[in-house]
Amino acid sequence: MSASDKMKNEAQDLKGKAEEAVGHMTNDQGKVVEGKADQASADAKKAGENVKDAGENVKDAFKR
């Protein structure tokens, strides 16, 4: 995973957490849901990148 991808995913996760917190403070369930959706999307991207990185590591191990 590139550093810029990690930063983008982390930014999306933090945005989601902030949006969820604002939703809780203002009693806006729509914001809470949007925040949780952003967090879930960031988590899915992180998981996909981790799988991709693991595949590259296995591929590299067989090259040696």
Report how far apart the termini are.
22 Å
Structural class of the secondary elements? mainly alpha
Order of helices and strands: HH
Please state the oligomeric state of the protein chains shown: single chain
The value of Rg in angstroms is 16 Å
Tell me the strand percentage band. Answer: under 5%
User: Please, what is the average pLDDT?
Assistant: 92
Number of helices: 2
Uncertain runs = none
Mind describing the biggest β-sheet?
Answer: none
Helicity level: over 70%
Principal-axes geometry comes out as: rod-shaped
By DSSP, the count of extended strands is: 0
Question: Could you explain how this protein is built, in words?
Answer:
The protein has 64 residues and is mainly alpha-helical. Helices cover 92% and strands 0% of the residues. Helix 1 runs antiparallel to helix 2 (29-63). 8% of the residues are buried.
Keywords:
2 helices, single chain, 64 residues, mainly alpha, rod-shaped
What's this model, at a glance?
With about 60 residues, the chain is mainly α. The chain has two helices and no strands.
Compile the SSE list and pairings.
Elements (H helix, E strand, L loop, with lengths): L2 H24 L2 H35 L1
Helix pairs in contact: 1-2
